[in-house]
Amino acid sequence: MSNYYSSLKNPPPHAMHTFPPSVFLRLFALSLFFNFAYSNGFKNVVTLAQFGTDANKYNFAERRFLLYDVNPGEGFNLRRDVYTRVANAVRQLRERGLDFVLVLPPWGNIWHWRRKKRTKIRWSELFDMDSLANFVPVMEFDEFVDVHGDFVETVLYLQNYAEGWPENGEYVLKYDLRPCIEADKYYIKRGHKWHGHFFDYAERFHAEDMKCLSIQGQSSTLATAVTNLSPKGRSLMVDRAEVILHDQFGDFFFWQARKSMRYAKRLRSLGDAFRAVQFGNASEYLGAHLRRADFVWAHRMEIPSVEGAAVQVGEIASKLGVRDVFLSTDATASEVETFAHRLAEQNIRTVTFSDVGEDEDLSEAAISIVDQWICANSRFFIGTHLSTFSFRIHEDREILGLDPETTFNRFCPDGVLDCEQPAKWTIGME
């Protein structure tokens, strides 16, 4: 059995490139170089010992497991933020002497993933498991099933209070077991077992009990609720974990949890090799994240047209003196062609990673991480207002120590020359 604190299974071997042999050999050699070059990055992670918690003082019989899930409609990058909230709840549970291990929910069936509907994607395909375990002990879901069995004792379904906020608008931290409001849409009891989606393992996994918790609070509130409501249970799943907030967004523990989410070495190496092949001097390019799809109607007053975005990128590139733009986008092929054509008129080249990602047989999640890594390492980054994809790039660039002036930038709507720019949530504020 593998170490419960991290996955010891290697990521699946990647498929052979479909590039010409000379290009493939360059990518392979550069991958080896960047594996070494980045093996010592992101050092500022916190260990359990620094929290005053002795990770070795527990015995196996005392070990407990916390699983979690979020609303099925939430996207990949919001889910990444929810991880930091739940991880901080687990940190606080451990500080109270409770030997909780955080069980990581497999990735899959995310609405934004249009090209490849993969399910049961392990975290080790996307993130460095040892780095995650430097913050709190973690394990893959399939490892949990191996050591615990194909069930969880209790599902704690988080929900808002049916009565809403009080009239005075005061936000009070509180929680109460209440009748379920909509959990019966997602869980059904057959005999003595509760059945639900359970990360696409519905046929082989169940819960012994399900309760609904109305909660108004944050990571610490959840930790208190778990301490009081499940004092002896060995396994607990918190569903709709996005309901809880950060204790304090941008504080010390937020950044330590976020820094621990280091990308898997294979994905960083692919991104670094791609940058070196495409751009030579690996940071002399502009990174742009242009959100389209549902943003075109949901936030149409806050984003530019494709042509308008190209104009803004062209102006920035000209000021910087760069002639390469890396574009990360969910735009259609025709929209990308329009964007690239407009920039080509200024002798500026547009590059995307998506075709390479397809050749590598990467999941949508892996492609998005490589996109974000490439944007994070650009000389200058411009993103999309309100996009969690852009938010994660802001955080990556902060962790890399890049100038906030080159990080916290957004596209303005057409016809607006000076729109409000993103708040600068810097590590220096922790």
Description:
This is GDP-fucose protein O-fucosyltransferase 2. InterPro entries: GDP-Fuc_O-FucTrfase, OFUT2-like. The chain has 430 residues and is an alpha/beta fold. Helix content is 34%, strand content 15%. The protein has 13 helices and 13 strands. The chain has helices at 21-37, 76-95, 129-133, 141-148, 219-229, 252-260, 265-279, 295-298, 306-320, 333-344, 354-359, 364-376, 388-399; strands at residues 64-68, 100-104, 138-140, 151-159, 174-177, 188-190, 193-195, 206-216, 235-239, 286-290, 324-329, 349-351, 380-382. Strands 3-2-1-9-4-8-5 form a seven-stranded mixed sheet. A four-stranded parallel sheet has the order 12-11-10-13, sandwiched between helices. A two-stranded antiparallel ribbon has the order 6-7. α2 links the parallel β1 (64-68) and β2. The radius of gyration is 22 Å and the shape is globular.
Short précis:
By secondary structure, the chain is of the alpha/beta class. The chain has 13 helices and 13 strands. The strands form 3 sheets. A 7-stranded mixed beta sheet has the order 3-2-1-9-4-8-5.
Number of separate helices = 13
Query: How far apart, in Å, are the first and last alpha carbons?
Result: 38 Å
Reported for the largest beta sheet, the result is: 7 strands, mixed
Rounded to an integer in angstroms, the radius of gyration calculated over CA atoms is 22 Å
The helical percent reads: 25-40%
Give the overall shape, derived from the CA principal axes. Answer: globular
| Estimated share of beta-strand residues | 15-25%
**SSE ordering:** HEHEHEHEEEEEHEHHEHHEHEHHEH
Mean pLDDT: 86
Strand order in space, largest sheet: 3-2-1-9-4-8-5
Structural class: alpha/beta
